[in-house]
Amino acid sequence: MAARKSAATKSSGQKKYGDKASEKVEKTMREMKRGTLKSGGSGKKVTSRKQAIAIGLSEARRAGGKVPPARGAARKKK
User: CA 48 to CA 73: how far, in whole Å?
Assistant: First the structure.
């Protein structure tokens, strides 16, 4: 039987997310668990795991890390 591919790798064997992205997500997850992670717009405390991951990926994109485009950004191009 063939081994399953990880969600973080492409079918060609290339990683989908870079090291900078994983570092930023780890950092934001730690901040969320401590209760110090705030959302950018309103400044409210983040309690959702998905929102913390999205914030980490967004920071990695701004820092120039290897991250695929956001879901909404990919569809808006015409």
Answer: 22
